[in-house]
Specification:
Strand order of the largest sheet: 1-2-3
Distance between the termini: 66 Å
Number of strands: 3
Number of domains: 2
CATH class of the largest domain: Mainly Alpha
Oligomer: single chain
Order of helices and strands: EEEHHHHHHHHHHHHH
Shape: globular
């Protein structure tokens, strides 16, 4: 390979007989600049003294979780709004329901990644974690605002979490309050059903309508696909909670959490949470 840098700063050269250029002539945007890599890669501040080797892994894993939570919220919001627009009296709504299905499918892929990330965290031994665990207090995963936002948007709204949060900023408290006031994915799904002429006045009507959808998928293909997409979202969230609690038990046993919670005991109390119980109960009445 031969090459050099032209007057514009673009790198060019010859590779296996072909002329190749790396970068746009006169371009001001770079890969690192676009991704804000200087800020991103300087955001991992170890608290342990001397630095514990595995603390960087611990911080990186949880920062990546927060990035994925942000993406999941982005997709869930849009999927919800698309479904709301498909409700009764909304112009042109049903034609875009396919997009909500697409975004739910993307969420499923991300949620599988969340479960798989636990494998990376478990390459850290309990002994290695104990080298820096005491420096984390009173911080706790319980304080992840985005995770709680995702639960609220999905349908599991619980105002008591806002009261129990410690150290919330005004902006974070405002975000949680907004999520509590906003429609959920489930409420948006009911709008899709209503837009297709399916009764959704109470749980009994919803279940009856879901049975009709399940037994006439040719007429209600999009509604059934959305129902299955929501159920998959619910199932993957449950899979993450289950995988998470086992990891915590493997790492700290029955110790209390760094934020003062009951640790694995609290996490186990959340294993039975279901975002869409009517979709699960439908299986028993088909």
């Amino acid at each position: 390979m031969t090459g050099g840098t032209g007057a514009t700063g673009a790198v060019s050269g010859e590779w296996d007989g072909e002329q190749v250029r790396f970068g746009e002539d006169g371009g001001l945007l770079t890969y690192g600049g676009y991704l804000r890599l200087e800020q991103l890669l300087s955001a991992q501040h170890l608290e342990s003294v001397p630095p514990a080797h595995d603390e960087l892994l611990f911080i990186t894993i949880h920062q990546v979780y927060e990035l994925w939570f942000q993406q999941l919220l982005h997709e869930a919001e849009t999927a919800r709004d698309v479904m709301l627009a498909a409700g009764p009296g909304s112009p042109g709504g049903p034609d875009r329901v396919w997009w909500a299905q697409h975004l739910l499918a993307r969420m499923h892929v991300v949620e599988r990644l969340l479960v798989q990330q636990v494998d990376v965290l478990e390459t850290m031994t309990p002994q290695d974690f104990l080298q820096f665990r005491q420096t984390l207090a009173p911080a706790s995963g319980f304080q992840s605002v985005q995770f709680r936002e995702l639960e609220f948007v999905s349908g599991a709204k619980d105002p008591s979490f806002v009261r129990r949060f410690r150290g919330l900023t005004d902006a974070e408290r405002g975000r949680l309050a907004r999520r509590l006031a906003e429609p959920t994915l489930w409420e948006a799904f009911l709008q899709v059903m209503a837009g297709r002429g399916l009764p959704v006045g109470d749980d009994e009507e919803v279940t009856s309508s879901l049975r009709r959808v399940a037994h006439d998928r040719s007429a209600y293909a999009e509604v059934w696909a959305l129902a299955e997409g929501l159920l998959q979202h619910d199932e993957l969230a449950a899979a993450w909670r289950s995988r998470h609690v086992v990891m915590v038990e493997r790492m700290i046993g029955s110790r209390t959490g760094t934020g003062g919670s009951s640790g694995a005991g609290y996490l186990r109390s959340r294993l039975d949470l279901r975002y869409y119980p009517l979709l699960w109960e439908l299986r028993s009445v088909l």
